[in-house]
TrEMBL record:
InterPro entries per UniProt: Adenosylhomocyst_ase-like_sf, Adenosylhomocysteinase-like, Ado_hCys_hydrolase_NAD-bd, NAD(P)-bd_dom_sf, S-Ado-L-homoCys_hydrolase_CS
Principal subcellular localisation of the protein: cytoplasm
Protein name listed in UniProt: Adenosylhomocysteinase
GO annotation, cellular component aspect: cytosol
Binding sites annotated in the UniProt record for substrate: 53, 124, 147, 177, 181
Described purpose of this protein according to its UniProt entry: May play a key role in the regulation of the intracellular concentration of adenosylhomocysteine.
EC number: 3.13.2.1
Catalytic activity annotation: S-adenosyl-L-homocysteine + H2O = L-homocysteine + adenosine
GO molecular function, one term: adenosylhomocysteinase activity
PROSITE patterns assigned: ADOHCYASE_2
Root EC class: hydrolase
């Protein structure tokens, strides 16, 4: 059997929701038409590990329409939509993912996806890439694509240790990804996840954001927009200054811990919120993570410290501490916008996934071959994504005239006489 999903009978519901997402993804729709006509991926096998959402389905359908054979697993045990899996199976893809699957099942699904001997791996978090490098051979793989910050960090670590066997394009680092998906998408879906899991009021609360990268910027801005007082925790001095000059209070976590009502981590680092911080928190503090892996909040220490736990709502568990206070963990400490909400809006994922689709074309369908290492998306591909999106939105730009082009290319012009 070329799939392992919860229930194939969910396919119709999945198809309906995928169609809704596709309505808001005009760039991918245009690329799908091009790929369907040209069949550039005919005979190519893609191993994919992504959050299995309706938006992801639009990306994979785009590649599948171009002739790609696709095997898909989840990049997180809790971010899978079972109806989407069923719809993709009926479309002819191999899918190995079940929402809430345990870690042994998750790892088995990763191995099943790689069993197709792919030509390219498309990853979110680098689990496919790392698993390949644990094997003696990468088989037919000629290149990879990594979609998120944590995965790029892991892949760069492989390259730094001179172990990376093939080129990997860091889609996460391209402007049309981190300016929009990371900032606006993660900002919105994090708040959405918190509200769905807790139905709490953000206005008037003290909201602590750990990390002020593009995701942290977006979360902090959305929280402030909802009326929260925002504190930022950072280790990078430049980012800390940026947060300060943008009007946020900047404190180390040990000082923010007693002040916050809601805590969100978005760093890609382990142990950002630890036992010593949790014991200082107010009664009723909410803990959420927006980083890729469930290591930013020390969940093991929280479970060992608690004298009692109970599930209060979907994706919300109460932990009673020895000091008599209660804190609440959202989504098992996994990325809250994917677990408790529906990930980034389709209009934003249109940009990120168009970048992935064009990067796939670039890697598999041209004679150009990159050396092993982590590479940026070619600037012309990223610019094409932005241009297609602007066209779809009906937005026109100014253009330079001949005199301006001459001025731009000249060194002779200086202070006007």
């Amino acid at each position: 059997m070329n799939y392992d999903i919860r229930d194939i009978a969910l396919a119709e519901r999945g198809r309906k929701r995928i169609r809704w997402a596709a309505r808001h993804m005009p760039v991918l729709n245009q690329l799908r038409e091009e790929f369907a006509a040209q069949q550039p991926f005919q005979g190519k096998r893609l191993a994919v590990s992504l959050h299995i959402t309706t938006e992801t389905a639009v990306l994979l359908s785009t590649l599948h329409a171009g002739g790609a054979e696709i095997a898909l697993c989840a990049s997180n045990p809790l971010s899978t939509f079972d109806d989407v899996c069923a719809a993709l199976v009926e479309e002819g893809m191999q899918v190995y993912a079940i929402n809430g699957e345990d870690l042994p099942t998750y790892r088995r699904h990763v191995e099943q996806v790689l069993d197709i001997d792919p030509h390219l791996v498309m990853d979110d978090g680098a689990d496919l890439i790392v698993e390949l490098h644990k094997r003696s051979s990468s088989g037919s793989v000629v290149a990879g694509i990594e979609e998120t910050t944590t995965g790029v960090v892991r892949t760069r670590a492989l390259a730094s240790d001179k172990l990376l066997r093939f080129p990997v394009i860091a889609v996460n680092d391209t402007p049309t990804k981190h300016y929009f998906d990371n900032r606006f998408g993660t900002g919105q879906n994090t708040i959405d996840g918190i509200l769905r899991a807790t139905n709490t009021l953000l206005a008037g609360s003290t909201f602590v954001v750990a990390g002020y990268g593009w995701c942290g910027r977006g979360i902090a801005a959305r929280a402030r927009g909802m009326g929260a007082r925002v504190i930022v925790c950072e280790i990078n001095p430049t980012r800390a200054l940026e947060a300060y000059f943008e009007g946020f209070q900047v404190l180390p976590m040990e000082e923010a811990a007693p002040l916050g009502d809601i805590f969100v981590t978005a760093t890609g680092m382990k142990g950002v919120i630890r036992k010593e911080h949790i014991l200082q928190m107010k009664d009723g503090a909410l803990l959420a993570n927006s980083g890729h892996f469930n290591v930013e909040i020390d969940v093991a220490a929280l479970e060992q410290t608690a004298v009692q736990t109970q599930e209060i709502r979907d994706h919300l568990v109460e932990y009673q501490l020895p000091n008599g206070r209660n804190v609440y963990l959202l989504g098992q400490g996994r990325l809250v916008g994917q677990v408790a909400a529906e990930a980034s809006p389709a209009a934003l994922m249109d940009l990120s996934f168009a970048g992935q689709a064009l990067s796939t074309y670039y890697l598999l369908c041209t004679e150009h071959r990159l050396p092993p290492g982590v590479h940026n998306v070619p600037a012309e591909l990223d610019e094409r994504v932005a241009q297609l999106k602007l066209k779809a939105l009906g937005i026109r730009l100014d253009t330079l005239n001949a005199d301006q082009l001459t001025y731009q290319a000249s060194w002779q012009y200086g202070t006007a006489e």
